[in-house]
Amino acid sequence: MKIYTRTGDEGKTSVIGGRVKKDDTRVEAYGTIDELNSFVGLAASVLAKDEGADWQDLLEHLTLIQHELFDCGSDLSYAVPDPLKMKVTPAMTERLEGWIDLYEAQTPPITRFILPGGSEVASSLHVCRTVCRRAERRVVTLSDEQDCPVEVRKYLNRLSDFFFTAARASNARLGLLDVEYERGAQVFRRRSDGTK
């Protein structure tokens, strides 16, 4: 099998149900998710070579997320989404919420915005977070223009929170403090019941 097909030389590509321009909003959305998946793979590589902490749980989570990002791209590749063929489910987003809670419990309280960075591990996860936010924006644009499965948008929204929390937990495991944005106000407050 040849990698090149020449079918895209005229600036069009195939989606499930037809062909569209390569800069179509749908292609831009799932293409950005593919970019995110590459950065998740890079973050996993950084974790795998770092012997400063036990990263097995986070490595397992990132691997599953990579599979689920393929699911997201698959769902978005339908010109007309078929609800019976969608792979992204509410349970996937709920699992992310559980992981977020686990990692948040490992971090010190936060009151201000923080600078992305700290350890190499945390920095790579912050890159994932920002690319995830861009992927989410692309999916929102797609939702305004064409049919789009809502669960993908929900998943990406929660996934960016996961990367933020995992980055902070990574720094905490390595004994590094997040650096607060020094000109920022206190934006994270706890409610009277102790939740945020």
UniProtKB/TrEMBL annotation:
It comes from the Bacteria. InterPro entries: CblAdoTrfase-like, CblAdoTrfase-like_sf, PduO-typ. It is an enzyme of class 2 (transferase). Belongs to the Cob(I)alamin adenosyltransferase family. This is Corrinoid adenosyltransferase. One of its GO terms (biological process) is cobalamin biosynthetic process. The lineage of its organism: Bacteria, Bacillati, Bacillota, Bacilli, Bacillales. Homotrimer. It comes from Cohnella luojiensis. Keywords: ATP-binding, Cobalamin biosynthesis, Nucleotide-binding, Transferase. It catalyses: 2 cob(II)yrinate a,c diamide + reduced [electron-transfer flavoprotein] + 2 ATP = 2 adenosylcob(III)yrinate a,c-diamide + 2 triphosphate + oxidized [electron-transfer flavoprotein] + 3 H(+); 2 cob(II)alamin + reduced [electron-transfer flavoprotein] + 2 ATP = 2 adenosylcob(III)alamin + 2 triphosphate + oxidized [electron-transfer flavoprotein] + 3 H(+).
